[in-house]
Amino acid sequence: MSLLDIDERIIKIAELADIRATPITDLKEPDESGVEVGILSGAINNTANEEVAKRMRERSKILVALGDCAVFGGVVAMRNFFKLEDALRRAYVQTESTDESGKVPKSPELAVPTKVRAVSEVVNVDIFVPGCPPEADVIFHALSELAQGRTPELKGDLLHWH
Amino acid sequence: MTVKLTINDKEVTVPVGTTVLRAAESAGITIPTLCDHPNLTPYGGCRLCVVEVKGARTLQPSCTLPASNGMVVQTDTPQTREARKFVLTLLFSERNHFCMYCQMSGGDCELQNSAYCEGMTNWPLPPNWQPYPVDASHPHMVLDHNRCILCRRCVRACGELTGNFTLGLQERGADTILVADLNVPWGESTCVSCGSCLQVCPTGAIIDRVSAYQGRQADVQQVSSICVGCSVGCGIELVVRHNTLLRIDGDWQAPVNEGLLCEVGRFMPLEDKRERLLTPLVRKDGALQAATWDEAIGHVVNKLKPLAGENGHGVAALASTRLPAEALYSFKQLFADKLGSGMVTSIEEGATTAVSGQLAQSAGQPIEGDLNMLKTADCVVALGVDLIGNHQVAGFFVKRALPNGTKLVVIDPFENALHDLADYSLRPQQGTDFDLLQAITAHIIALGLAKHEPAHLADLASYTAEEVSRITSVPAETIKVVGQLLATATRPVLVYGRSVMRGGSTKVLQAILELARTIGGLDAEHSRVLGLKGRANSSAAYQYDLDKPLSLKGQQAIYLALGDDQPGQRLAERVQNIPFKVVQACYSSPITAMADVVLPTEMWAEQAGHYLNLEGRLQQARAGLTPPENIRSHVAVFQTIATQLGFSLDDNWQPELSKRVPINLI
Amino acid sequence: MGKQKVTIEPVTRIEGHAKVTIHLNNDGTVDHAFFHVNEFRGFEKFCEGRMYFEMPSITPRICGICPVSHHLAAAKASDQIQGSPPPRPANLLRELMHMGQIIQSHGMHFFELAGPDLILGFDADPAIRNVVGLIQANPELAVKAVQLRKYGQEIIRLLGGRKIHPNFAVPGGVNKALTSAERDTILAGSVEAIATIQIGLAIMKDWAAKNMEDINKFAVFPTGYFSLVTSTGSLELYDGDCKLIDQFGQPLEQFNGRQYLNYIAERVEDWSYLKFPYYKKMGWPGGVYRVGPLGRLNVAKQIDTPLANEEFKVFKSLSGGKPIENTLYYHYARLIEALFGVEQVRVLLDDPDIMSQEILNTKRDMTGEGVGVIEAPRGTLFHHYWTNDKGQLERVNMIVATGHNNYAMSTAVDSVAKTYINGQATHGNGNGYHIKEGLLNRVEAAIRAYDPCLSCSTHAIGQMPMIIEMVDPSGLVVDRLQRD
User: Measuring CA to CA, which residue among C154, C100, C166, C162 is closest to residue C377?
Assistant: First the structure.
């Protein structure tokens, strides 16, 4: 969503590239025929994310990890310091506001949580755009370079992780 | 002796023994570092500073590599860049660096900055996600092992700079972890809360509770000033944002402390919970009520006017020795010179200065040396002074010298934490320290090692080690060994504190000076004696004659210029029955509660001014904070009162600073 | 063949990751639809051991869409842990930042997330039914919309150094004062912001007039409503008491947020990682309530700024002053709140204390517990921390804004599925059914109306296919179709 922070410049990007599947658009996944650039944000923290990452890798010529979660694992990777079961029990059984219905949701409809990983721990990543979130200028630079067929180089003011 | 080498095709000449890193710095060439710190011994731990040296088989750490003649060095090559990136990759893989919520992130973290310099957009090796503890047991600081890179700066600072040796490392290799003492919670360890570790930590592993998240270095102001915690007068940096004091750092450039501070100087000012006085108060109908400055000062002037010249049953005045020289001088002029009161003194009543001042005055020369002597001493005798409990930075100089073989002799009948560190811990019976000193001097003469013979040689004859041992309970053998040690020391220092001047007697201090003279540590040119002086401006107060014992009998009024001082309950009791009480202070206290007029003034960080430290070093404090609206400076208050009484005050504070006793104004 | 199931995944134009399953009976009618929040993050556990003063920086990372809410709720809880109530100017500045967030979040939602449905239509081609399509259809409006969000983000940036995940609120206050130049910049932008919101309101009213049938059959159902209110019962987004009313508008409770555990409990369902809060005394599911813009306007008696209050009166008249139950009116309520947000920015900037340097209470007296409550754009947010005497977190509990609406979203999804899909499923080329994309989009729109920020309880953006799965009673997928 921080994509929207590039403000008016999104219009420029829209001119340069054909924006396909994104959370702000209604195409649910990249075209089966493949896309030039696939951008993944967020860490891999469950089985569903793994599938997404693999599918994105298959269908994208260039795969970009956007944001600290995708690049490093992000804050949520602090979960790795605890047993997954303990974290689930705290959230769904032990929390003070949870009533006697408390249980760990296990419906087959739900993705199964896993260890939290950076995208590059699951699939090969071509370009890393760190930042929590990456500043609008960084996103714009990366997107416009990619849209023009160049490899974005992040350094100086364009490189930050926090 | 110099050596000439080439760094990045630039010829550089440096003194022999200079490391390649420092040589490069002197030539304006930056080599990335992490474990290096200019005030610490090179360690060669992080390997970030590797350089290519022509003829060397491998990359060399520049921080530990001495420059040599003809050396050809390249600091930025594909090999060094690759090596640095590899070092950083390993560092990030070892612990858990969640930069996004770290208070150092975004400019203040040397680890992050190094990674940015190498253009790292990700971590090639993921962390192994092993959890590390956060030690929050310390009252002032938090230690997050997740962010520790084991650079050992803190360990070195704790040992090399402060001689405390609390922080250390446990285990080896990947299991290495920073520990306090033998791995106890930091807050329960021997840590003295000097915060040197905080000041050298390159990452967010050690942060302080108060300034965390208050703004990055680029967001805050830094004001160089002087600590007014004690008479050492350490250089400090006030870290301020929006007129709020966030942190106090030690000033690495300050000649006195070279970056070190103690808990009193670094942390305590930020823990002040006292209630600030924000408006003048005047007692009306039995209760203190807010008043205008005109009203309050008018009231004071009306009461003081008839008391002018009434020495003994007029106005007594007492000032804090935390006030700057300018304020103390105005105070002295107003009350002693203009109002003619004979009872004008300071809160210490000369306890730390009157006796030594008297001896110096009669000697007609300075009797004391400087703090730098402690840094290089080979033998320190601490007499009636606890350098662990107060004047701690002076204590650090002593403590850190001990591992290098400096001998410590402690002479104090009382409990004193220095006893535990001493090579020779002498606890003479109370009141017998004079005899002990005489015996040591006598022994040195008997050994034929005296460099100067004392004037009253015959008087010493009766002080044999055996005889004095009986009186003092100090073994005769110890007396002799200490005598021998002192006589043969090349750089001895004798440090004394106020307890050798009990009762205002010069006797013990004279014996100390005698001993110093005997071992060649006191003559017209120099002195190896150092006396601690209580508070920040005790020495200035002495020079302005503000060193009398406070006598209140018959006084009709008292004027207490307390500033931000915290007077004891005893002072409140003593002044309780004086008919008219004016208190000039920053915070409300039992004394302000009993005052007739309360005048709110600037606190230490709000006032600029000069301080004369224990060495006679005149230093300037700068204001880091703007006082609240209705607050006035001490000098302004004295001047307004003087004007209304029809006096005018001059500002010759500086010449008067060495009027009474010649001092080495440093 | 037994029951069949349709899955919508991911639900798009919402923040976070969710999916919907629609279980069809053999005759093609809807048996039940579920709203699954599909990810788990674990903040309640992994914050244990961290320092309380880190929480205003850790918890915003729950999500980038309303990080300021978490930032401020965490700061409020930390104020209490540290025993340092912030000075008044600090509270004003925090509220100012919060208003920036309300403006940006509400503005973005209306124009960029919900707008494509309202302006381009539920049945528009999904390839263009998005903000880019909106840009192409109405570039002038699109630019205004982008600028409205930017205005809110700029307020956040001026105070906190950056638009997302600012570093601003600290225990006891804030770390930056407002300069007069910054004040002037923000004031100057308010005129255009109000104008844009008013355009939005006109679009909304026009749309409502033309789509009254949809509005009245689209997920209309009774619940209680929950919100913070001022001491006089007005709309309040930053501070104040919690107030709960019943489906008829009668007050049930009014209490200090720190007492929330006495009034609110959360239910866990096996099929969602998002819990279901409800009013304890009425139990589950009788005690369910709604929060967020519609909830707040239903609870509030009035709005204390003039333009928003005028709109509020018009809005209230839609149901004769009774609570409004129509899910699609969330969009309307959201715009009225955005208008209040900009007006409140002006009120705050006109306050004589707003540029004061008295922004930090430096006195500390550790208490070991704190509850931070705030009206996030999506509803009431609770952060509750317990620490040891050194300020290290021992337990963390959070009830996130979107959670309160979980029941409502599930009900809305079920209701919309039944209203719109019943009988509309046609046989496709396999054994199962085929449903028009536009109908499925309506199901998503039911969720979208609540503007859920599912990252709060779960995780971030994901990209999954929109698929229709037909499942036999044993759970075996017998056919699988792509979206139309």
Answer: C100
- What are the boundaries of each domain within chain C? 4-41+410-482, 85-220+326-362
Sign of the Cα pseudo-torsion (B453, B457, B463, B466, in order): positive
- Nearest chain A residue to C280 by CA: give it: A99
Is C48 within 8 Å of chain B by CB? no
Strands C379-387, C369-376: pairing kind: antiparallel
Question: How far is A91 from A145, CA to CA, in rounded Å?
Answer: 42
Strands (E), B37-149: 50-53, 60-61, 72-74, 134-135, 141-144
Length of chain A: 162
Least confident piece of the model among B181-190, B541-550, C113-122: C113-122
Query: Do residues A79 and B131 make contact, with C-beta atoms less than 8 angstroms apart?
Result: no
Q: Which CATH class is domain C85-220+326-362?
A: mainly alpha
* Pairing relationship of beta strands C264-267 and B206-208 according to DSSP bridges: unpaired
Nearest chain B Cα distance for residue C390, angstroms: 6
Distance CA A21, CA A33 (A): 13
Q: Provide the 10 A C-beta neighbour count for residue B546.
A: 29
- For residue B579, cis peptide bond before it (omega within 30 degrees of 0): no
Domain residue limits, chain A: 2-158
Quick check: A71 contacting B, CB < 8 Å?
yes
**Contact list, B212 vs chain C (CB under 8 Å):** 51, 53-54
Task: Decide if A68 and B100 are in contact by the 8 Å CB cutoff.
Answer: yes
Confidence check: pLDDT of C391 > 90: yes
* Beta strand pairing call for A60-66 and A127-129: parallel
Please count the CA atoms within 13 angstroms of the CA of B659 that sit on its side-chain side.
13
Contact C112 A102 (CB under 8 A): no
Residue pair C484/A71 in contact by the 8 Å Cβ criterion = no
Q: Which of B134, B242, B273 sits opposite C392 (nearest CB)?
A: B134
Residue C408 pairs in a beta bridge with: none
Mean pLDDT of chain B: 95
Q: What is the structure's pLDDT at C455?
A: 46
User: Chain C 384-423, CB below 8 Å of chain B: which residues?
Assistant: 388, 390-392
Residue B348, pLDDT above cutoff 60 = yes
* Beta-sheet pairing, B315-319 with B344-346: parallel
Distance CA C289, CA B521 (A): 86
| Topology annotation, domain A2-158 | Rossmann fold (3.40.50)
Contact residues, chain B, for A120 at CB < 8 Å: 122, 126
**For residue B204, which residues of chain A lie inside 8 Å, CB to CB?**
none
CA distance C155 to C138: 26
Share of residues in chain B with pLDDT > 70 (%): 100
Which domains does chain B possess? 2-76 (3.10.20.740), 127-271 (3.30.70.20), 281-351+537-658 (3.40.50.740), 354-531 (3.40.228.10)
Amino acid at B33: T
Quick one: pLDDT band at residue C473, thresholds 50, 70, 90?
very low
In this predicted structure, which of A90-99, B621-630, C114-123, C313-322 has the lowest mean pLDDT?
C114-123
User: Given C61, C175, C392, which is nearest B101 (Cβ)?
Assistant: C61
Cα gap B488→C431, rounded to integer Å? 106
Q: What confidence score (pLDDT) does residue B402 get?
A: 96
pTM, 2 dp? 0.93
What's phi and psi for C450, nearest 5 deg?
-85, -5
Residues in C closer than 8 angstroms to B244, CB to CB, are 357, 359-360, 362
Helices (H) and strands (E) in chain C, counts: 15, 18
Residue of B nearest to C162 (CA): B106
Tell me the chain B residues in contact with residue A141 when contact means C-beta distances shorter than 8 Å. Answer: none
CA–CA dist B480, B488 (Å, integer): 12
